[in-house]
Amino acid sequence: MCGIVGYVGSQEAEPILLEGLRRLEYRGYDSAGLAVVHRGRLQVHRVAGRVQELREEVGAVSPAVVGIAHTRWATHGPPTVANAHPHVDTARRIAVVHNGILENAVQLRSRLQREGVALASDTDTEVIAHLVAEQLESGTATLEAAVRAVLQEVQGTYGLVVLDVQRPGELVVARLGSPVVLGVSEGEMFVASDVAALVHHTQQVVHLGDGELATVRAGSYRTSPIAPVAGGAGEVEASALSAQDYDLGDHPDFMHKEISEQPAAARRVLGGRLDDRFATAHLGGIRLEPRELRGIRRVTFLGCGSAYYAGQMGASLVEELARIPADAEPASEFRYRNPVVDPDTLYVAVSQSGETLDTLMAVQELQRKGGRVVGVVNAVGSAIARQCGQGIFLHAGPEVSVASTKALTNMTISFALLALLLGRVRDLSAADGRRLVSALLDLPDRIEEVLRSEPEVQAVAKQFAGARHMFFLGRVRGWPVAREGAQKLKEISYIHAEAYQASELKHGPLALIDSSMPSVVILPDDELYAKNLSTVEQIRARGGPVIVVTNADVPGDLADAVLRVPRSEPELDPVLLTIPLQLLAYHVALELGRDIDKPRNLAKSVTVE
Ligand code: BG6
């Protein structure tokens, strides 16, 4: 076993840390290290040897008053200085000491390497430092929220202490399967993996519970569940946005920033959740055993606005991959229609904010009727996340702009993971599973490719910004894409936009087509390609302008405008086909001088009736 010691207070931290390690020496180790924050920098000392060698390596004591320390008994990687804790991220902002084993360290390491992170050790622990730093860089407001979000992605056991050089007044501590105890003293706090390291400082100890996390400051500590659970007083409040979340960087507005964050957000929602060995998904936040997953006879997605349309994309994915009936319904309707709740249905409540009242009320209605519901939510600690008590966090980072983009994309990707999991406990073959896994791993790069086509989309937006109405048309997989595209245009440009199933066009809406009614047609290169192509021709035959969004090799003169996206696997194409529509709505609204992030009459999350 390894030893952990942490300190935050007003005394010099290094002697306390070294003395604590010495008292834990009996636990066996092969290397040791400590990190303190001094003059705004992390000072890290590590040796592949005994605590006494560390003491000698530290030398003259620094005046630092906060720090963490560790003695290591190697589990991942040989006992070398490079593998000794504390581990830090590339920018040396975050330091971590960890007892336990991360079971999905391999996936997380390869994901970080794909993101270009240079890993400095062979250990599992190092990934936590990088992931926490990534969370904070992506705008997560507090160290506690960043650690909690990362812990949704890791699988395994941990006794963990995290230190952020930018927050030298606190330590965040977490425990799952490996003991951690807090020592409470006047104006200072101690952390250790064993009371032995504390007892000569204080007799007031708090044994952190399994699945608990704590923020520890010199004069206080606050514990909360790692995975927010339903109800219960004194819950951690949803982390409010902090000043840095309003940091636009070099983006003109949040919507543009959040559209551009989609590749990184997609990597986060996939992190630690794909198992290419068994060609399936790991959704640690959903506590359903394989037998229970097999017992699910239907999946119903409930959400509002874009979350509802994402739910429709989710329903397609579940039907295609798991071959069980699935559908989506506006949560706002569901809650009022005295729904017939089926005990064998899995209900999925979808919400970026986790605060939309209609969706929260639908969850409560379901739970009153014995329905089984999981939450797919972005905001950790939000009401819907707590009410559901289990589910999938989106890890999109705070989404500020009213029009949902990166959260929407992460919702659809989360549903692909759920559909893959449900499929692989049924008849989806390993080969098919591997096909989806590799396509999902590839998706962030494909999203990046779509984003590079922004100038073309901007030109099309200029061409059509004068329209007073617009149709969005799609079939089957393309239908929810059309609905989301119409939603985006309505929300931020105020142009009337209507989505129709392309097959319905001839049964009425075609009457509206003339040169003043442009149509966007979603044209995936799939089994309905010819049908969608004839829809394009039907419209053009009546003088209707057409914008085609496609991954097929269509001729440039097929339509008045062609927005091209790369192919993924057919089931995942809706993720890529949606993104040009985000950019189209964005640039039309810009052309019209609209308030991009705060469109009139709307709210980011409607928490009232
Ligand atoms: C609406 C927003 O108010 O709420 C939409 O205008 C959003 O953009 C919908 O999709 C649902 O919000 P949430 O937070 O529940 O996903």
Automatic annotation (TrEMBL):
Main location: cytoplasm
Biological process annotations from GO: amino sugar biosynthetic process; carbohydrate metabolic process; fructose 6-phosphate metabolic process; protein N-linked glycosylation; UDP-N-acetylglucosamine metabolic process
Organism: Kineococcus xinjiangensis
Annotated protein name in UniProt: Glutamine--fructose-6-phosphate aminotransferase [isomerizing]
Location of this chain's protein in the cell: Cytoplasm
Reactions mediated catalytically: D-fructose 6-phosphate + L-glutamine = D-glucosamine 6-phosphate + L-glutamate
Classification via HAMAP family: GlmS (MF_00164)
Transmembrane region(s): none
Active-site residues, Swiss-Prot/TrEMBL: C2, K604
Domain of life: Bacteria
Xref: InterPro entries: GATase_2_dom, GFAT, GFAT_N, GlmS/AgaS_SIS, GlmS/FrlB_SIS, Ntn_hydrolases_N, SIS_dom, SIS_dom_sf
Keywords: Aminotransferase, Cytoplasm, Glutamine amidotransferase, Repeat, Transferase
A Pfam family that the UniProt record links to this protein: GATase_6
Designated gene of the protein: glmS
